[in-house]
């Protein structure tokens, strides 16, 4: 089921007759873990791989692999149904470790060439920094004249530029990293036959550099995961009185604006507005968030859950909330906003094209300029004072994003790949 680049270099290509009909090669952003003789994959990646397999006859997935115990949220591949012959997993060395990258890049390039020669379709997830094997794979495909797509989940160069703070050396290094990453992003986009760009925000930033850009979505929920009509009615009724219930689900990372999030809650507290807030997720800024909450006197109003591996528990928390409060500081298209709409939870946060497109569909939220915590606190306070509007917004959220389910978005991607990269050898019936 698995392959590795740890052995001698493989031949760079196979004869065209070795191509496996309607097979797909992808690179993953989440790493594999090999531990006690078993391979572990992130749970969301397992779900995605299985959905890809509903749309292509074989799926070959490549990612860096750590020889260590997996963190929470990773499961054993075979137990999760990721088995041969449907799946082929290619574990790669950690290219983000520069000595490893320099030592292994030729062997990895040859290995990727051998795998992609056996595939009908090829799609590479692009990070952009040195050591990103997606960049390597796209480069190999470009040099060999093999049709391929590139996938962007976010604008990594812009994220790096945002993080370029602190001392002067750190700022300079951050700008250098952002410039290198931007160069790699644009080179990959210009060289690819197809660009799959997740959400409106990413599309608006990167589509000018691609000759065939498409907006695509990425969601791990189905219709059965939506809030039930009974629960939605109870949620609307419960919004009439009591403390506001706010939530965020994601990493306590600078790009997510966690300190802005705490500042908004502090402003609500200063206005005398009662609330209960949940932050579901771990991250480097979690302790700083707790300290700031203590300083503002709102620690008792916030539950910091840390990482929660129990997916039903996360969905329950989202359904319980009345507002998805978000303070995203960089250009990305986060899935948690769609998950909130599936839970009938309105979106209040910093504006970007992706969030704006989701809110515009049914009017299920309010957005303010990025970084304006004062305006965001005022938007929340306005809803607290007008509970009828809040209840109506909950109903609007419940009607939103019905076209965004795992089955539908993967099927749409399959159709784009088939159309842009060539006709399928063995068409797959609609799921």
TrEMBL record:
Presence of keyword Transferase: yes
Enzyme's top EC category: transferase
One Pfam family of this chain: Glycos_transf_1
Listed SUPFAM superfamilies: UDP-Glycosyltransferase/glycogen phosphorylase
UniProt keyword annotations, A-Z: Glycosyltransferase, Transferase
Residues annotated as domain Glycosyl transferase family: 235-397
EC number(s) recorded for this UniProt protein: 2.4.1.283
GO molecular function terms attached to this record: 2-deoxystreptamine N-acetyl-D-glucosaminyltransferase activity
PANTHER family to which the protein is assigned, alphabetical: D-INOSITOL 3-PHOSPHATE GLYCOSYLTRANSFERASE, GLYCOSYLTRANSFERASE
Record protein name field: 2-deoxystreptamine N-acetyl-D-glucosaminyltransferase
């Amino acid at each position: 089921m698995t392959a590795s680049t740890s052995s001698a270099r493989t031949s760079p290509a196979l004869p065209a007759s070795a191509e496996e009909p309607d097979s797909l090669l992808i690179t993953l952003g989440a790493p594999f873990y090999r531990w006690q003789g078993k391979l572990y994959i992130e749970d969301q990646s397992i779900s995605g791989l299985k959905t890809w397999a509903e749309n292509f006859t074989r799926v070959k997935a490549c990612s860096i692999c750590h020889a260590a115990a997996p963190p929470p949220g990773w499961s054993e591949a075979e137990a999760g149904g990721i088995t041969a012959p449907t799946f082929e997993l290619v574990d790669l060395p950690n290219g983000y470790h520069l000595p490893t990258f320099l030592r292994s890049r030729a062997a990895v390039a040859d290995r990727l060439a051998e795998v992609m020669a056996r595939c009908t379709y090829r799609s590479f997830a692009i990070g952009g920094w040195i050591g990103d094997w997606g960049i390597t794979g796209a480069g190999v495909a470009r040099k060999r004249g093999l049709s391929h797509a590139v996938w962007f989940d976010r604008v990594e160069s812009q994220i790096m530029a945002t993080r370029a703070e602190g001392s002067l050396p750190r700022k300079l290094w951050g700008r250098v990293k952002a410039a290198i990453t931007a160069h790699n992003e644009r080179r990959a986009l210009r060289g690819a036959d197809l660009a799959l760009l997740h959400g409106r925000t990413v599309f608006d930033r990167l589509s000018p550099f691609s000759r065939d850009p498409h907006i695509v979505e990425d969601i791990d929920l189905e219709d059965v995961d939506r809030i039930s009509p009974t629960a939605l009615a109870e949620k609307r009724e419960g919004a009439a009185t009591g403390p506001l219930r706010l939530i965020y689900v994601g990493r306590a990372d600078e790009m997510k604006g966690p300190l802005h999030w705490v500042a908004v809650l502090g402003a609500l507290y200063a206005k005398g507005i009662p609330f209960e807030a949940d932050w579901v997720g771990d991250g480097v800024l979690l302790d700083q968030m707790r300290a700031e909450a203590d300083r503002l006197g709102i620690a008792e109003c916030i539950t910091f859950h840390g990482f929660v591996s129990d997916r039903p528990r996360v969905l329950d928390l989202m359904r319980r909330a009345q507002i998805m409060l978000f303070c995203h500081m960089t250009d990305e298209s986060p899935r948690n906003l769609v998950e909130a709409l599936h839970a009938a939870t309105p979106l209040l946060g910093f504006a970007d094209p992706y969030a704006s497109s989701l809110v515009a569909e049914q009017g299920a939220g309010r957005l303010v300029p990025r970084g304006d915590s004062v305006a965001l606190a005022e938007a929340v306070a306005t809803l607290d004072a007008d509970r009828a509007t809040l209840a109506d917004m909950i109903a609007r959220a419940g009607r939103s994003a019905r076209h965004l389910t795992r089955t539908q978005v993967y099927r749409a991607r399959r159709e784009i790949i088939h159309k842009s990269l060539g006709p399928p050898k063995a068409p797959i019936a609609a799921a």
